[in-house]
Design goal:
This is Transmembrane protein. Keywords: Membrane, Transmembrane, Transmembrane helix. It comes from Diaphorobacter limosus. The chain contains 5 helices and 8 strands; from the N terminus they run ααββββαββαββα. By secondary structure, it is α+β, with helices and mostly antiparallel strands. The protein has 2 domains: 51 residues, no CATH class; 152 residues, Glutaredoxin. It has an 8-stranded mixed sheet, covered by helices on one side. Helix 3 links the parallel strand 4 and strand 5.
Amino acid sequence: MSGSNLSDVYPPLAASQTPEPTGQRPQRARRIGRWQLLGVLLVCAAPVIASYFTYYVIRPEGRRNFGELVEPQRPMPAEALVVALDGQPRKLGELRDQWLLVSVGAAACDADCRNNLYLQRQMREAMGREKERLDWVWLVSDDAALPADIAPALEQATVLRADDAMLAQWLAPQAGHGLSEHLYVVDPQGQWMMRFPARMDGAGATQARRDLERLLRASASWDQPGRAKEQP
């Protein structure tokens, strides 16, 4: 063709049209796959993130928590072994997928221990129909026998014997107090996230119950009664 050249017939490819080298395609596919997986995880976690954002950040003006928020939250040592009262070993992680109201104490169960157990039961019952989303747990810190007179009061409780060293790595008292003086709140993901004041009385328990009600309300979109992974 007179007066023409190859560049007229076959114009150069634009940079965006240049074929991608074959060796780069697997890397690009892996990057896309990672972003897609991250997107799926964010979608699944969105309800949990939103509920915590609502509780921790978007608070009504002037509202104060009675319980002390734990920052950073401490994850449950899920693989740690505990022992049920029938002597059967269990993993602490079996307690996940429920809100937990936890107390710790020696088997002899002194006055503080008995007060905590009483408050745990009363606070859970006060939740009404939402109480099935909250378990009250007593972690016994030694191997001694439990007093016979408290057995009837523990029918609705989860009672497990737990190692002192493990408990000290997970839960912690306020400075100047003992581990057994507080009640602790653990979320369904196994994160210890709140501690109530030491040696609460009935008035304190009423305020603590309001904290629990707000937590249950904020998590209602993603937390359901009963353990999702529980087998029949």
